């Protein structure tokens, strides 16, 4: 019996190592140069590697990076990830204690947009609560916050998701925090969220007004619209600053 158990454990380890090899290969390989069969065939072992309770953090991390790359390739790949119970597996990985695994899982989930099942998942305010919390964690895990805020910026194009988002109790506080954080990439994504909610009108627009987002954008434009080019910034930050000013103006006009 002991010999049989040892043999089974060794087989599991071999399978796990094979899956990890696939993950490592796809981290550094452009998925567009692979055949459709190769891309689709790699998804099941990658999802399994993330899901297995005895996978190491490095294995999960590299599998998640590979899934992130595959998800952005096309609809067929996103369908396969979802069909392999990818949404529940990736959601679980978002709760990892390891910062890099958490970030990679968030990015992988974000790249499932605009899959219908993923959008349906985010119509639940309880699921959105996690994304709002991650977006506010920019001091501890900037990459994860950027991915979460970026995802919210995309999905709030949906009026149904926006209606669910305003049910998250911490939303107003988070929006205020993100707008005032001084990190341009986060601010830009937050302003897209605000603009989407304002454009939907009704309660979503009113929530942004109550959060002080519209007033902030008005003050932001007044303060920087003529002086942003004089600020000592890198070229990348200057472009991001211009983008946030453009977005703030759109929000003010929309109101």
Keywords:
255 residues; mainly alpha; Leucine-rich Repeat Variant; 15 helices; elongated
Description:
The protein is mostly helical and 255 residues long. It has 15 helices and no strands. 75% of the residues lie in helices and 0% in strands. The protein has helices at 2-27, 36-51, 57-71, 75-83, 86-93, 99-110, 116-121, 125-135, 142-155, 159-165, 171-179, 184-200, 202-210, 213-224, 235-254. It is elongated, with a radius of gyration of 21 Å. The longest helix has 26 residues, at 2-27. It has a domain at 11-111: Leucine-rich Repeat Variant, CATH 1.25.10.10.
Q: Major sheet, described briefly?
A: none
Strand content: under 5%
- Overall structural class, as computed from helix and strand content, comes to mainly alpha
User: CATH superfamily membership of the domain at 11-111, which one?
Assistant: Leucine-rich Repeat Variant
* Computed CA radius of gyration, to the nearest angstrom: 21 Å
Order of helices and strands: HHHHHHHHHHHHHHH
Please count the helical segments: 15
- CATH topology title of the domain at 11-111: Leucine-rich Repeat Variant
**How many strands in all?**
0
CATH architectural designation of the domain at 11-111:
Alpha Horseshoe
| Uncertain parts | none
| N- to C-terminal distance | 72 Å
Whole-number mean pLDDT:
93
Q: Helical amount among residues, as a percent range?
A: over 70%
